[in-house]
Amino acid sequence: SNKPDRRRTKPSKNWDVPPPGFESMTPAQYKEMHGGNRGGRNILPPPPMI
Amino acid sequence: CSRKHIQPTFSQTILISHMYQNPANLPLLPDGRAGSQMTEEEQQTAYDEFYEDVMVELEEKYGPIEEMSVCDNLGDHLIGNVYVKFENEEDAEKAALDLNNRWFAGRALNVELSPVTDFRDACCR
């Protein structure tokens, strides 16, 4: 294979990091608590006013 | 765009909604300053680290990736979207199922199969 070698060079600081205070909850439970999947979209803050 | 996209039953491509939070798109501070104080170089480094972090994790856990693309559009249904095209449909399905129960940077991921096969031709019409 001529693909570049993609191996982790340092541990991830992002993967499997829950929001503070929700460590005992699963992501599925968290999403349900926040109103379900809402059509597969994450819940985002409103866009800035221009 | 009606935003009523057809979600395929099988696909090599997954869509991870709003996964990338571009520091350049942070809302302005109340005093009018930019939301992010990062330099352009720091923003590029942050993006490169994000890309590698996602690419490496998905390849290690789910299978070989053909292509990965991070959406730069600002539309509220597109912003930060990450599209990952796996070499095999089975790996994409496995990834979509598993990632819906994983955290990334303090957020619960929302993942679905996407009909996009050619990123250069992809356009939200």
Stretches of chain B where pLDDT is under 50 for at least 5 consecutive residues are none
> How many DSSP helices of chain B?
2
- Work out the radius of gyration of chain A: 17 Å
CA-based shape of chain B: globular
Low-confidence stretches of chain A: none
Report the average pLDDT across residues of chain A.
74
User: Count of DSSP E strands of chain B?
Assistant: 6
Oligomer: heterodimer
Category by helix and strand content of chain B: alpha+beta
**N- and C-termini, Cα separation of chain B:** 5 Å
Q: How far do the termini of chain A sit from each other?
A: 49 Å
Main sheet of chain A, how many strands, which sense, barrel?
Answer: none
How many H/I helical runs of chain A?
Answer: 1
Strand content of chain B: 15-25%
**What structural category arises from helix and sheet content of chain A?**
little secondary structure
Biggest pleated sheet of chain B: 4 strands, antiparallel
What Rg of chain B do the Cα atoms give? 15 Å
Sum up the overall morphology of chain A in one term. elongated
Mean pLDDT over the full residue set of chain B = 87
Order of helices and strands of chain B: EHEEHEEE
